[in-house]
Amino acid sequence: MDAFFAYLxxxxxxxxxLIIGLGLVLxxxxxxxxxxxxxxIMFVALLFGHLGVTLxxxxxxxxxxxFVYAIGLQxxxxxxRTIVSKGFTFFWIALVSLGTSASxxxxxxxxxxxxxxxxxxxxxxxxxxxxGLAAALNVTNDPTISVGYGIAYPFGILSVVIIVQLLASSKxxxxxxxxxxxxxxxxxxxxxxxxxLITNPNCTGKTLVEIDLHSMxxxxxxxxxxxxxxxxxxxxxxxxxxxxxxxxxxFKELKKLEHLLGKETHAxxxxxxxxxxxxxxxxxxxxxxxxxxxxxxxxxxxxVLTRVRRDSIEIVPCGTTSxxxxxxVHVVGDQEDCERFVNIIGQHERRIxxxxxxxxxxxxxxxxxxxxxxxxxxxxxxxxxxxxxGPLLVALIVGHYGRVGTISTRIPYAAKYIIREIxxxxxxxxxxxxxxxxxxxxxxxxxxxxTLYGIVTSLIAIFTAYLTARFLFRLxxxxxxxxxxxxxxxxxxxxxxxEKLDSDTPTVTFAxxxxxxxxxxxxxxxxxxxxxx
Length: 533
What we know:
Distance between the termini: 38 Å
Number of strands: 13
Low-confidence stretches: none
Strand content: 5-15%
């Protein structure tokens, strides 16, 4: 048996992908909807490390850089936007939640004689944050951190999954779901469709261009119903009293239209032969980087773009909205006009999935260089962002802007996913085998105590996030459940809640706080490692 594991250590590809493969098999086992997913690679790696298998540290460093860079690209488009649009509500929730759980870990270290490296690992494991683990390891490079992470991680996942299910089963949550169905204002960030009856005499006899709706609302008017006939809402369409218009936008923007045009009404404006709606993917380089105003879509094609979906974000486009490769657009107009427009934007599947490696490579190089650059702080202290912080910061900026000049930095979702998963798998395999060498010794000496500390740390973070959202910022129970899942960056918990509740609210708030929490946990983990090391 020893000879077999020695053989594995001498053959990198075999040992690395054997650990990854077995970890994925273990991670896909579900017990009442609960599973570990990719993170199970860590547990297999701990066993292999205990049995003497070793992997090069450089593979782990590469995995860390790929993982955090892909994470930054994923959350970048909504990270800064969330901070601006939501004020600092979610920022403060994440800060308070992480601050209290970090304080608990510091108390365990200073008062309960918990080794500092184990405490750092417990913090990242209790908050089920692999990026946090990567950041902490980058500061200390001590495999004992992975031991603390491995002990606390499963109980961190279980804690948040169990608690959000209990919250989801409460009477208050069920009452809020019933109320939600009659109050559309809870869907403020979701793109919806409404119809309005024109009752404002100041709007009658004027064209849509003359009214200039976009100066007052970011909603798009698509169709007009008059005398039982439906036609496209072109810019030169003249509005009349008792016309019914169909508009697409968020609840907040559509509410502005109601104040401007007239009261909301309901009419069947979908079933019409001469007007169609089509989803199409942008793949032509001729339109990439150009705004809708520059493309003159309404003037040249007579169609209206009502929605643009970029990765997981759906927006209502306006004249300043630019198109990118892979964008899914919903176009409304006459069938022939829609066909002409779709032919212009491309719709070539191969082009949609192509990845430009040049901006990806440049971004990773810049992120790594930023990560290893020594910043001089007051008092003669040298500080580096590390191989987690540097690439993450660059990726957030790149993901937010989407292009540099004429060069698009956008990476297709599938490419980001595979980069993230490969990076995570490499990182977990290497850190797990390193920690496995002394995992059993540490667990045997204080495993039960470490498990208890990990559970307490998780519970503190969960309840602090919930109570802060619920009572300090007055979010309802549905929103607070999503906040808990997002603050703990727990997609398994969100998955369970989504199956249990007939509501989009937890998903919306999860998406809003997730990006902030992901970055905040990474920063907290690094600061905790610097303070305790």
